[in-house]
Amino acid sequence: MTTKASNYLTHFRNIGIAAHIDAGKTTTTERILFFTGRNRNIGEVHDGAATMDWMEQERERGITITAAATTAKWTRSGTDQEYTVNIIDTPGHVDFTIEVERSMRVLDGAVAVFDSSQGVEPQSETVWRQADRYGVPRIAFSNKMDKTGASFDLVLNDIRERLGAIPAPVQYPMGEESDFKGVIDIVRMQAHTFTNDLGTEIEIGEIPEQFAGKVAEMRAQLIEAAAEVDEDVMMKFLEGEEPTQEELVAAIRKGTIEKRIFPVLCGSALKNKGVQLLLDAVIDYLPSPLEVPAIRGKVEDSEDTVAFPADPDGKLAALAFKIMADPYVGRLTFVRIYSGTMQSGSYVMNASKDKRERVGRLLKMHANSREEVTELRAGELGAVIGLKDSGTGNTLIGDGDDAVLLESIDIPEPVIKL
Ligand code: GDP
User: So what family is this one in (predicted)?
Assistant: First the structure.
C-alpha cells in the first residue's frame, strides 16, 4: 500500500536505455531529451529548422548524455499529467559489464533498443540477460524502421528465438524502409501518421485498410497474452468480449512489471519518428518506484536483511553508483535514494567504508541545465557535491543508523529461462 508521503512516486519512472553498439541508444536518448525539453518549452522551437539547431547545439555542448542520471519531464500525450523520467546511463559496451550491472540496480525499468535491420545482436543479448538477473521490466524499441533492410518481424522473431522471450507488439509499422510513414497503436486501435519530416507532428486517424488484417491478428494475440496475466481480461476473453482500452493497458502494464509481457514498439529515432509514443509507453507500461520490490540491505555482522520500501519518511538508504569529475564543481557522486530523504548540508554514514561524510550541495541534472535542490527524496536520483570518500557501489545511510549494505543483496533468479 502506498503511504501518502510517497504518492509523488506514482508519477516517477527511473529507466535505462540499453542496446547493442550502433543500434541507436545515443540517438534515442538525445531525441527523448529533445522531446521532453520541447515538452517543457525549453528552447524556442517554432519550426523544423529551429528544432534541428537546438539539437545541434545540444550535441556540440555535449551535455545531453554525459550525466549518469538525467532528469526529464514528460506530459503523457492526451492528458495533462506530468511525469518525471530519470534516464540512467547504461554503458553499452560489454567491457563495462560490472558498470552495466550496477546501473541495473538503480533503474526500475528499461527500454531495449534494437536495430530493426539487424535484429537482436550479441550485446543486446548480454544486456537482456543482465536485466533478467536483476529482474528489470522492459519494453523494446525496434529502431531504424526507415533504414534499408528494416523489418519489424525480424525483431519480433529474434526476441522470440534469441532472447527466449515472448514479444507483445503494441504497435505495428505503417510501411518499412523509405515507406515508413507511421505506427499503428494496437492497444488503442489508432494510426499515428508522421506528417512532417521531423516527426514532430503526428496525425491520429483510422487504421488504413491494408493493415487491418495484420493488426486484428496481432491484437488478438495481445489480448490473449494480457488474459494470461489478468483475470478480468481473461473473463472477457473466455466470453468472447473485448476488454476496454483501460483494462488492456492495465493488464499489459501488470504483465510487463511481472516480466511476463515484453511490449514492443517501433520507430526511427534518427527521423524523430515514434519517440513521443515511446515516452508514452514508458509511462504506460514501465513501473514507478512503488511497483518494484523494495531493495534489501544486509545487516552488518549478521545474516539478516532489511527492506527499504520507497518512502521519503523512512530511514535513509542510498547507493552511490557513479563518480564523475566535473571541471567546475569537482567530484560529483551520483546517487539513487531508495528510502528516506537526503538533505544538503547534512551528515550521512558511508556504511561500506564505515566513514561519516558531509553532504554538500545536491544537484538534479537536466539535459541542458543543473538544478540545485535542498533534498533528494526516496525514488529520486541526483548528484552530490562534497562526498570525499564515497566510491561507486557504496551504501549511504543516515548518520547514526545501524549499518546495512545494499551491494550485498541477493540477485534474483532469472525469470526467463534462456
Ligand atoms: P549507439 O551506439 O547505440 O549509441 O548508436 P547511435 O545512436 O550512435 O547510432 C548509430 C548510428 O545509427 C548513427 O550513425 C546514427 O545516425 C544511426 N541511427 C540511429 N538511429 C537511426 C534510425 O532511426 N534510422 C537510421 N537510418 N539510422 C539511425
Answer: Belongs to the TRAFAC class translation factor GTPase superfamily. Classic translation factor GTPase family. EF-G/EF-2 subfamily.
